[in-house]
Model the fold of this input.
Amino acid sequence: MKAIIYEEYGPPEVLQLRNVEAPKPADDDVLIRVRAAEATKADCELRGFRFSVKWFWLPLRIALGITKPRRAILGGYFAGEVAAVGTNVAQFSVGDKLFGTAGLHMGAYGEYVVLPATLAMAEKPRNMTFAQAAAVPLGGLNALHFMRLARLTAGEKILINGAGGSIGAHAVQIARSMGAEVTAVDKAAKEPMLRRLGVDNFVDYQREDFAQAGPQYDVVFDMVPTSSYRACISVLSPGGRYLCGNPRLSVMLRALLTNRFTDKSASFAFAKETREELEALRKMIEDGKIISIVDRELPMDQASKAHRLVETEERCGAIVLLIGT
Ligand SMILES: NC(=O)c1ccc[n+]([C@@H]2O[C@H](COP(=O)([O-])OP(=O)(O)OC[C@H]3O[C@@H](n4cnc5c(N)ncnc54)[C@H](OP(=O)(O)O)[C@@H]3O)[C@@H](O)[C@H]2O)c1
Done:
């Protein structure tokens, strides 16, 4: 099969299109013919071994390969068709069209990937192409996890910092569907897209400081690793909730103090990515509450270009690799 592989950590050019042996499913696995895979920030971080959260470095290096990547095929989020199932797999059948996550197994940059049937995979939304569906699980699963954690209610005000990214753009749509008033923070180039998704207010972080507005939000959802903890807490109304998707060690310690000594709360989490959440997303998509935001679809041999676009943020929406073309 054709696959994009990387045999060393480094710049986008370490990604190479090669012919490799197709994997075979064991009893509890599903073999998936991948049609599309999102090129994500996480894929870029794994490829270059450069992570925004520094305390992660050592455990990740041990897990992923000390001198070179242990798993040569990247790709954590995909859409495709079931090509074969193991003897113990009852929930999927050959020919099912799925979208989902490969988790730390990765491998969705190859024409075939073998995954445990227990991973978050669900029927592809009927109203989406494979490429559109592949752009949903990363942003959608993480956004849904955090929006549920926020316990948003209709009429509440939420500020989403980094709203134009994969997770942020899904959080905008989910928060709107929960009836919240959404203020999006990102750079000006992303404002038209975010307005289309229904944001009520927009702050261009390159020209304005959202913290100047003073306390006014019930929830702040923060996806920006470099943002100021003090600024995020300062714009919360009494009883407000701060959710951090990118916790630095200092944020975790300060969150303990905020929770103990103030009427505000701060939490950080790593989304679990469950099948139940993916099913909920599929329903929201088929009900017209969430759309997929694809900037570009690229053939496999342009994987390096895809990574460069993601790393330099020259995109408005997801970059999707069409696997097998
Ligand atoms: N906790 C979890 O479970 C979890 C799971 C997955 C990912 N993450 C982390 O969450 C982060 C976001 O993920 P993502 O996939 O949504 O990333 P992404 O697509 O790169 O989105 C980040 C967005 O933030 C914008 N941004 C950058 N600097 C900003 C600033 N100072 N103020 C406001 N916006 C700013 C970026 O725009 P420009 O750079 O173009 O300005 C981009 O639109 C990543 O760092 C990832 O590692 C956490």
